[in-house]
Amino acid sequence: MHIKPFSAILPPEQFGFEIDTFCDAARNHLSKAFLPFKKPLPQKEGIFIIEIVSEQQKSTGIICLTHINDYQENRLKAHEETIHSKLKKQKEYLAKQGTFIKPVLAALEENAALTAWIDKGMLNPVFKSYHSAKRNQWYNLWLVENITSIGEIKNLFKTKINQAFIADGHHRCAASSSLFDEGNACFNYLLTAYFPINQLEIRTFHRIYSLINQTDTDLLLSHLSEHLILTPLLSPDLPENKNEILLGLKDAWYLGIFKNVKPQKPMVIMFEEWLINIIDIKKLSNIYYPEDDVSIQSVVADRKGTNPILAISLFPIPKEDWVYAVKNNFFFPPKSTRFMPALRSGLTMFDFKNEVISLK
Fold first, then answer.
1. Whether residues 187 and 83 fall in one domain
2. Is 41:346 a contact under the CB 8 Å cutoff?
3. What is the crossing angle of helices 147-159 and 112-121, to 10°?
4. How far apart are CA 75 and CA 162, in angstroms?
């Protein structure tokens, strides 16, 4: 794989270490993050080590640029299908702004040499430290600008690391790749954050399908029972074991246990394959993507209109199943994996259109 340092656009000093205001502005619309400032935001060149610390988790990785060929030639491996409308919107946004406001999150298998390189870099003083009260997390950054150290990690990726797995950022990668293929040479690198797989966590998958009014929910339940052992529930309790699923249909909840489990396919893939044979996905009135069990309950309780719904929550995909599936080129449905820690928009941004990098 081919990585290199970059000129990072950093939040201005006046925000201090409480960074939510700036990150929210950057996420909502890039220009809002720049509007208050009459001169360019501070920039620093190099490769960044990032440590994300919360009460439950500590994860350490690196932020750098990855050549677009690594994505196009499947060394930076995708696992989720893209949504056309979202891809189109992301492509238009990148073409207009020319700026990555958040790195693609990628996972690496354990590599002792990479761990040693990171540990050595973290012996230096912290370059920047930011806090998010909203997420109750600290983001510590170390800047590696030494040419010898940068040469070491570039060579490590080139000779020892032959693949990585996209955890979050499929649409950003696909949009950049499309822009590059159309002749936009400045999109030849992806801003990427690499973390070891064992320092990432996959959260529960939630989805709510808003069905058309004509849907026969009794027939739908009958079709689902062909693939699942269904037990009625008094309340929407999340699944606690692999091969389990929470189903909400109309106003009733069920615990489902998958029948005829295929070891090579994670549950979310199996469910998606069955679903297209059970309901006409093209006739759905809407799809919601709740982030947690509280959200899924509130969306079901507060939904407007009379459309019947099918709500599902799957037991989190074990990481070993996810890695196996990605290596064997199984594709998950869109937005079916949610990885923690989540990166914040605006902490390290990269302007493709005005790239100036002296470290080669």
1. yes
2. no
3. 160
4. 6
- In angstroms, the CA 356 to CA 360 distance is 11
User: Which of 260, 236, 265 has the alpha carbon at shortest distance from 330?
Assistant: 265
Kindly state whether residues 37 and 148 are assigned to the same domain. Answer: yes
Please tell me the total count of domains within the chain. 2
- DSSP code string of 127-193: SEEEEETTTTEEEEEEEE--HHHHHHHHHHHHHT---EEEEE-HHHHHHHHHHHHTT-GGGSEEEEE
Measure the CA–CA gap between 15 and 37, rounded to whole angstroms: 12
Q: Is residue 358 part of a domain?
A: no
CA distance 49 to 122: 8
- pLDDT reading at 194 higher than 60: yes
Residue 343 token pair: 């990166």
Which residues, in sequence order, are bridge partners of residue 314? 205, 245
Residues 148 and 289 occupy one common structural domain: no
Looking at the structure, tell me whether residues 172 and 299 fall in a common domain. no
- Rounded to two decimals, what is the model's pTM? 0.87
136 Rama sector, left if φ>0, alpha if ψ -120 to 50, beta otherwise: left
Range(s) of the domain holding residue 243: 205-315
Classify burial at 39, counting beta carbons within 10 Å of its beta carbon; exposed 0-12, middle 13-18, buried 19 or more. Answer: exposed
Residue 285's contacts (CB-CB under 8 Å, 6 or more residues apart) are 210, 211, 212, 307
Give dist(CA 127, CA 44) in Å, integer: 10
Which CA distances in Å does 175 have to 86, 112, 267, 299?
10, 33, 28, 30
Q: How far is the C-alpha of 61 from the C-alpha of 110, rounded, in Å?
A: 12
Is residue 68 a contact partner of residue 5, using CB atoms and an 8 Å limit? no
CA angle 192, 194, 197 (to 5 degrees): 145
Residue 75: give its domain's CATH number.
3.90.1530.10
pLDDT by residue (tens digit) across 279-330? 776 667 677 777 666 666 666 666 555 678 888 888 888 889 899 999 988 8
